[in-house]
């Protein structure tokens, strides 16, 4: 099993599936969601229209269309309020349900963005801890998923994810 942190554009990664931090409509938006929709092309929006949206914590799968990835797993992260409204459980569910879908579709490599830490204001330290703990726990004894990439956008997020990953691996 290989876990890694990569700083850059998730839409360019050569993995079987990338995870989209989507909104409930699944029809595109800002941040990573908009970037994935732009890179995948208009067919992605058409495919998402057939999914009838998703609830927070849910995950749904489409083809990757014009992306290097074969699939996009769309998951709806929680909007962070004050941490007392089930945000942690909902964020954990995003990772759990994405991994579950990956297994069901025999996906060997998957890339996650830092879900909910942009417009949804989830504190990056807490979000990274939930992401890394959940994904490592679900994949450490798995031979189904061979590679997980945490795709991050900036230096600070990269540093936080690498630190969390090194704490778990040591």
From TrEMBL:
InterPro entries: Macro_dom, Macro_dom-like. It holds the Pfam family Macro. Residues 1-169 form the Macro domain. It comes from the Bacteria. PROSITE patterns: MACRO. This is O-acetyl-ADP-ribose deacetylase. It comes from Alkalibacterium iburiense. The lineage of its organism: Bacteria, Bacillati, Bacillota, Bacilli, Lactobacillales.
């Amino acid at each position: 099993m290989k876990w890694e942190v990569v700083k850059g554009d998730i839409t360019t990664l050569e993995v079987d599936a990338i995870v989209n931090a989507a909104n409930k409509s699944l029809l595109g938006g800002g941040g990573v969601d908009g970037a994935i929709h732009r890179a995948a092309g208009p067919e992605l929006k058409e495919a998402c229209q057939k999914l009838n949206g998703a609830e927070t914590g849910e995950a749904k799968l489409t083809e990757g269309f014009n992306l290097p990835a074969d699939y996009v797993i769309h998951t709806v992260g929680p909007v962070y309020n004050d941490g007392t409204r089930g945000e942690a459980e909902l964020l954990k569910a995003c990772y759990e349900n994405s991994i579950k879908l990956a297994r069901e579709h025999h996906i060997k490599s998957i890339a996650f963005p830092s879900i909910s830490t942009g417009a949804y204001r989830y504190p990056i330290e807490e979000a990274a801890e939930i992401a890394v703990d959940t994904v490592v726990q679900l994949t450490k004894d798995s031979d189904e998923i061979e590679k997980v990439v945490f795709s991050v956008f900036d230096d600070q997020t990269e540093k936080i994810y690498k630190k969390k990953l090194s704490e778990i691996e040591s």
